[in-house]
Amino acid sequence: MTGYDDELRSLEDASRSKSARITEESLEMQKLGHQMEKFHKEQQAAVQTVAHMEKEHEWIADEKDNFGRTGTPYDFKGQNIAECKTSLRNLTERFQGMKKKINPKS
Hints:
Blueprint: H1 2-56, H2 59-63, H3 81-101
């Protein structure tokens, strides 16, 4: 009889652990579903932004074929974006400083 009780307890423990795992996996599935929805919304926003920029700037349609192509000004694989942002910030600060001393229109 005790053998059956031990087996029953082990089966109940296994059932509880499987139920807990199912619950954890369901939560993980919900998280992944939310991430997918978020990425989908971001993708739609990016598509709308690109469409808006293409309408606003005519040159984009003309130069679109060169985007990402090596040897063109639009090849960004060899660029360090963080370094470019730092350089832009420094140049903007220098320009603002010079703007007070020098007439930028001349």
